Amino acid sequence: MMLPTAKLPQLGLVVIGWIGGLFTCLLFLQYNSPKCAPEYVPPFQPEIYKSVNFSKHISTTSGETGEEKPILLLWFWPENYRWNFQDCKTIYNIDGCHLTDRRNLYNQADAVLIFHKAINHDLSNLPPSPRPPFQKWIWLHVESPTNTPRIPGLENLFNLTLSYRRDADISVRYPLTVSKKPNEDFVIPKKDKLLCWFVSNLAPSTGIGTRMSYYNELKKYITVRIFGSMSGARMKDEEYFPTMSSCKFYLSFENSVHKDYITEKLNGPLAAGTVPVVLGPPRQNYEDFAPGNSFIHVDDFPNAEALANYLLKLDKDDEAYKRYFDWRKHVRATPHLTLWNQEFISYICHACEYIGKHREYKAAHDIYKWWFS
Ligand SMILES: *[C@@H]1O[C@H](CO)[C@@H](O)[C@H](O)[C@H]1NC(C)=O
Ligand SMILES: *[C@@H]1O[C@H](CO)[C@@H](O)[C@H](O)[C@H]1NC(C)=O
């Protein structure tokens, strides 16, 4: 059968258009343009992101090598604390990824960082599905298991875990650093207070029962200087280190007791030149991160009264007190960020560093089984 002659011009146009398109494509392919590569048509693009101009981003290159940096998309700002992404470079010298909060880059993001506490219980505010097959989701959580809402349906969504736990894929802590050359410059800061505690969180639901009952017992035998909202006055961020260093001892009491959950509450006094009195996981776990003679553990004493007596004795014995600083000869603590909006910077920057270096396939199955074990 012949085609009706009236349709012939149209057919001709289609064929010419098709050949023309193919030719343009071949020409582009020769110059390695991503425009004709199959992935140019974004196959996973959900309706709401249709307006993205892909050509704008595909050509994004960086560094002197011209190699493209992976994109790390911050899906939520944790606690809505905002800061400048440049801080990763200026504070930690981390520049390994393109960090962004622009959700319209979702389809190109190599990794998406998702803050656990911001996820709705029905998962309705997670990034759209299906996700691009090359994309990794990172679970960001900084609280202990006691303070982890169990949101159903999250167990098998993530590729990487990011927390303080040493066995997280990305473990972010406050490491002490060792130096071969002895530090000769350390002097114990001037002290005008015996025992201090900075405390704001008084919510019983956060598991603080253990530390509150210990404190209530301890204060019967020794004076504890309280700072922070428990004392009725919020402490200014910039007063944190100066106040800390003016205390001989500091109560580094974690809100709940869990493996590796040793937070800035330990790093603060170590960096300030104060002796921490710790309550948290067993001494052995602390000694994974800090020299055994850098802190006093509440478990070293049968009860709070014995601890109080020991601190009072050290207050009178300068030589014995000084021995808590011996470790500083070759080990150093680094002050952490203390401004209210800086709480998550280190976590987010280290995620950036990680995805800048790691390309391997990874799935994190059953995160709750791991987390709550
Ligand atoms: C998309 O971005 C490119 C590069 O910035 C620009 O040249 C082009 O005009 C943009 N296209 C549209 C439709 O906005
Ligand atoms: C990420 O994890 C999900 C869920 O386990 C998995 O389906 C996906 O293939 C993983 N993707 C990458 C790029 O590792």
TrEMBL record:
UniProt xrefs under InterPro entries: Glyco_tran_10_C, Glyco_tran_10_N, Glyco_trans_10, GT10-like_C_sf
Domain of life: Eukaryota
Alphabetized Pfam families for the sequence: Glyco_tran_10_N (PF17039), Glyco_transf_10 (PF00852)
Catalysed conversion reaction: an alpha-L-Fuc-(1->2)-beta-D-Gal-(1->4)-beta-D-GlcNAc derivative + GDP-beta-L-fucose = an alpha-L-Fuc-(1->2)-beta-D-Gal-(1->4)-[alpha-L-Fuc-(1->3)]-beta-D-GlcNAc derivative + GDP + H(+); alpha-N-glycoloylneuraminosyl-(2->3)-beta-D-galactosyl-(1->4)-N-acetyl-beta-D-glucosaminyl-(1->3)-beta-D-galactosyl-(1->4)-N-acetyl-beta-D-glucosaminyl-(1->3)-beta-D-galactosyl-(1->4)-beta-D-glucosyl-(1<->1')-ceramide + GDP-beta-L-fucose = alpha-N-glycoloylneuraminosyl-(2->3)-beta-D-galactosyl-(1->4)-N-acetyl-beta-D-glucosaminyl-(1->3)-beta-D-galactosyl-(1->4)-[alpha-L-fucosyl-(1->3)]-N-acetyl-beta-D-glucosaminyl-(1->3)-beta-D-galactosyl-(1->4)-beta-D-glucosyl-(1<->1')-ceramide + GDP + H(+); a neolactoside nLc4Cer + GDP-beta-L-fucose = a neolactoside III(3)-alpha-Fuc-nLc4Cer + GDP + H(+); a beta-D-galactosyl-(1->4)-N-acetyl-beta-D-glucosaminyl derivative + GDP-beta-L-fucose = a beta-D-galactosyl-(1->4)-[alpha-L-fucosyl-(1->3)]-N-acetyl-beta-D-glucosaminyl derivative + GDP + H(+)
One GO biological process term: lipid metabolic process
Domain Fucosyltransferase C-terminal: 189-370
GO cellular component, one term: Golgi cisterna membrane
Boundaries of every Fucosyltransferase N-terminal domain copy: 68-174
Gene Ontology MF: a single term: 4-galactosyl-N-acetylglucosaminide 3-alpha-L-fucosyltransferase activity
Main location: Golgi
Descriptive protein name: Fucosyltransferase
Source species: Ictalurus punctatus
Source taxonomy: Eukaryota, Metazoa, Chordata, Craniata, Vertebrata
Chain's gene name: LOC124625984
